[in-house]
């Protein structure tokens, strides 16, 4: 063995430097970068200032973060109100570093956390001395030029003091390692210039942020997964989560508080509502129509609110499928508005009454309607399911419109037809409506291939035929009475 084989090469220990870690939420990245540039420039080469946008591809993100935090002397937390939850990287970084401080605190290596924040520091660091950036909502009303002119940075500025303090730490480290102290000319002015530049960059970024976001629309996000959807097919899984979004209080449509619930809870909480089945049908139809990714989604669904005074179209704006199988559907409930009323109130009521009476006739009493009793009787089972849901929806809308028009009260109609007629109409219609709704509700739980579906179809056809027999003469009389009333208003001969 050669003599030089026994020689051990002893490497010189690396000089100790100041290690700084900048932690931030993704929303605050530009603020973090501005602070990073100021700190790195002020502290020079004897400080390693780390920000995670410099991580290398192929490096395990969390492993590299923990390794960096183990070596960190100073953790700078950037906070503008967008602090992440505890399971996010900002939350992990702060919690991990606090644990590291408690485990490995060394007298010659004091570790420190400094929050740099807008308005107030994060709650988790409220006890730490920090740096208020000093850009308020009122400040953001200024233009960039006005802010620049008003910006006065001197030696009393908290950020200047912070940079000066850690410049001294870096100088001591240089001296301890045998390096000469860095000569700085007009050091205070240099730091003030760095902080001024940082402030202007942050101000420019904050000016591009929205001052406020108003979401008055009634919006609900439904989240579930592909396997659960496939298991139920024509419904939503009970554990699908409905989350109200924005300030429009969308859950009020269903008479519910504006809070997140599951689909199973939704069904139980709305059990007493006459519109529950139509709500479930509309939401399910819109969601399931998008499952194959087609562009022609069923956005034709209309529902009536729990108070019976409003109608809403249910519109799917986005349907997202993630690689992990999660499915997310964003639904808007857009109010179906009626035109304003003008002119004489009595004339308006006559026209509204005529509209409702004719609409009822077109729905059930004319042969070309899909709800005419003969068309129901010959409908194939699959088509009958659709007919039953459609009838229920139209009855709901009819009810909503009569309330909205003020025509749900008998005394309004009494101006055009006598009370005896109204009583006869009510006595004939109410039990038939109840029976029609009951048949439609039973249809939901019956498979289209079952023999029972044919029985329900025939029962509905018979009920609508009975409706034609008993109601058609009364409907004709009502329309004629309304037309006579309209003629009087118009002074027709």
Please provide a brief summary of the model.
With 493 residues, the protein is α/β, with parallel strands linked by helices. The protein has helices at residues 29-43, 61-71, 89-104, 144-150, 158-176, 187-206, 226-232, 263-269, 276-288, 345-364, 373-377, 381-404, 410-413, 419-444, 451-490, and strands at 18-23, 47-51, 74-79, 112-117, 131-132, 218-225, 241-245, 261-262, 302-304, 311-321, 326-335.
Structure description:
The chain is of the alpha/beta class. 47% of the residues lie in helices and 13% in strands. The protein folds into three domains: 18-206, Rossmann fold (3-Layer(aba) Sandwich), CATH 3.40.50; 218-335, Beta-Lactamase (2-Layer Sandwich); 345-490, no CATH class. A six-stranded antiparallel sheet has the order 8-7-6-11-10-9. A five-stranded parallel sheet has the order 2-1-3-4-5, sandwiched between helices. Helix 1 links the parallel strand 1 and strand 2 (47-51). Helix 1 packs antiparallel against helix 6 (187-206), helix 10 (345-364) packs antiparallel against helix 15 and helix 14 (419-444) runs antiparallel to helix 15 (451-490). Mean pLDDT is 83; it is low at 85-89.
Quick tags:
493 residues, alpha/beta, Rossmann fold, 15 helices
Layout: helices, strands, pairs:
Elements: E1 18-23, H1 29-43, E2 47-51, H2 61-71, E3 74-79, H3 89-104, E4 112-117, E5 131-132, H4 144-150, H5 158-176, H6 187-206, E6 218-225, H7 226-232, E7 241-245, E8 261-262, H8 263-269, H9 276-288, E9 302-304, E10 311-321, E11 326-335, H10 345-364, H11 373-377, H12 381-404, H13 410-413, H14 419-444, H15 451-490
Parallel strand pairs: 1-2, 1-3, 3-4, 4-5
Antiparallel strand pairs: 6-7, 6-11, 7-8, 9-10, 10-11
Helix pairs in contact: 1-6, 2-3, 5-6, 10-15, 12-14, 14-15
């Amino acid at each position: 063995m050669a003599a030089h084989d026994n020689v051990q090469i002893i490497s010189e220990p690396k000089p100790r430097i100041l290690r700084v870690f900048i932690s931030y939420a993704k929303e605050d990245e530009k603020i973090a970068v501005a602070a990073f540039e100021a700190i790195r420039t002020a502290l020079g080469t004897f400080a390693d200032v780390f920000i995670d946008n410099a991580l290398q591809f192929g490096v395990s993100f969390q492993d590299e973060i923990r390794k960096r935090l183990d070596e960190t002397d100073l953790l700078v937390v950037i906070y503008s109100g967008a602090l992440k939850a505890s399971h996010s990287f900002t939350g992990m970084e702060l919690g991990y570093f606090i644990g590291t401080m408690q485990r490995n605190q060394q007298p010659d290596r004091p570790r420190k956390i400094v929050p740099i924040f807008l308005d107030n520091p994060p709650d988790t660091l409220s006890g730490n001395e920090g740096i208020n950036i000093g850009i308020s909502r009122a400040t953001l009303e200024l233009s960039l030029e006005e802010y620049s002119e008003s910006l006065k940075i001197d030696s009393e500025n908290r950020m200047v003091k912070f940079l000066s303090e850690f410049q001294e730490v870096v100088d001591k480290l240089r001296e301890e390692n045998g390096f000469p102290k860095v000569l700085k000319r007009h050091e205070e002015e240099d730091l003030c210039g760095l902080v001024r530049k940082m402030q202007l960059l942050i101000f420019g970024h904050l000016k591009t942020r929205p001052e406020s976001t108003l979401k008055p629309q009634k919006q609900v996000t439904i989240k579930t997964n592909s396997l659960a959807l496939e298991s139920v097919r024509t419904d939503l899984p009970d554990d699908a989560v409905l989350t109200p979004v924005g300030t429009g209080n969308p859950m009020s449509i269903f008479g519910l508080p504006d809070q997140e619930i599951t689909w199973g809870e939704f069904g139980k909480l709305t059990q007493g509502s006459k519109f529950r089945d139509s709500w479930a049908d509309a939401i399910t139809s819109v969601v399931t129509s998008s499952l194959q990714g087609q562009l022609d989604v069923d956005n034709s669904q209309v529902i009536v609110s729990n108070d019976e005074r409003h109608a809403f179209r249910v519109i799917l704006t986005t349907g997202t499928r993630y690689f992990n199988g999660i499915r997310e559907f964003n639904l808007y409930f857009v109010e179906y508005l009626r035109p304003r009323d003008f002119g004489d109130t009595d004339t308006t009521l006559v026209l509204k009454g005529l509209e409702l009476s004719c609409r009822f006739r077109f729905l059930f009493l004319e042969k070309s309607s899909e709800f005419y009793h003969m068309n129901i009787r010959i409908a194939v089972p699959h088509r009958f399911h659709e007919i039953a849901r459609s009838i229920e929806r139209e009855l709901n809308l009819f009810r909503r419109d009569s309330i909205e028009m003020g025509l749900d009260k008998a005394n309004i109609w009494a101006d055009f037809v006598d009370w005896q007629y109204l009583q006869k109409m009510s006595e004939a219609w109410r039990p038939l409506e109840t029976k029609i709704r009951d048949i439609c509700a039973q249809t939901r739980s019956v498979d289209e291939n079952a023999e029972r579906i044919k029985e329900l179809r025939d029962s509905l056809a018979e009920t609508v035929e009975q409706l034609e027999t008993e109601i058609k003469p009364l409907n004709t009389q009502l329309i004629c009475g309304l037309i006579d009333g309209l003629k009087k208003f118009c002074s027709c001969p």
